[in-house]
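We give the chain.
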Amino acid sequence: MDASAVASAPGPGSVPGPDSVPGSSGPPLLTCYDDATGERSELSAVALGAWAARTAALLRDGCGLSAGDRAAVLLPPHWQTAAVLLGAWSIGVSVSIRLSATAGLPEVGPGADEPLDVVFAARGRIDDWLEDVPLGRHRFALDVGAKSAPGAPPPAGYRSFLTEASRYASAAPAYALVRAGDAATVDGTSYAEWGSLALAIAEAQDITAGDRVLIDAGQHEHPSTWLLAPLAVGASVVLCVNMDPDLLDVRVDTENVTRVL
């Protein structure tokens, strides 16, 4: 969806768009393109923070989760994925990041034994025979990535993430602080360790403060590269899904891109 076409507040039964937050105007922090559908979504830091806050409230107030609980994330690079991850981490929920399966044998690391407390899955991965979607006490479907069907009812046993998250306020509640040594992922890797990795990736890719980084989502599926590394050093992101190489030059120009990954 084009952010300029989104209303500032949801009406009855509607779902707010990515930038539908009062005061959310400002320099873009995360811009998402899908060249297969023509979708373009743009979020400022305020707007992305608001969706992270909604996610945090959904998890804590809606699902009763808190620090130490576990979430499985089966999502592609997307602004909604960023909201899920940042929201979960903001209340100390550790995540199991599960990239797309390619051989029918997804790898599950330490700490990811089932059932988990909550599962966030892209619609296209829920019934894919290659995938092993874990059991979870709470399950949310997201219409991102392949086989998405925005507006369609969620699969049986799942709730719509956007519908449920939009019920909560966009202001961050006063939750307990998360400590640097707490586990950010279910394998026990801490927030501090993930932060150090993000900084190392940014250094290796020569990403610095103020950069606007265009990232081919097909080449960089893990959020350590497309989300954490740029944010760690104060860069903004132009995330391109189903990247059309013929559009690269014009996109670099129109988005004021300074680095391409």
The CA atoms of residues 143 and 222 lie 19 Å apart. The first helix runs from residue 45 to 62. The two ends are 24 Å apart (CA to CA).
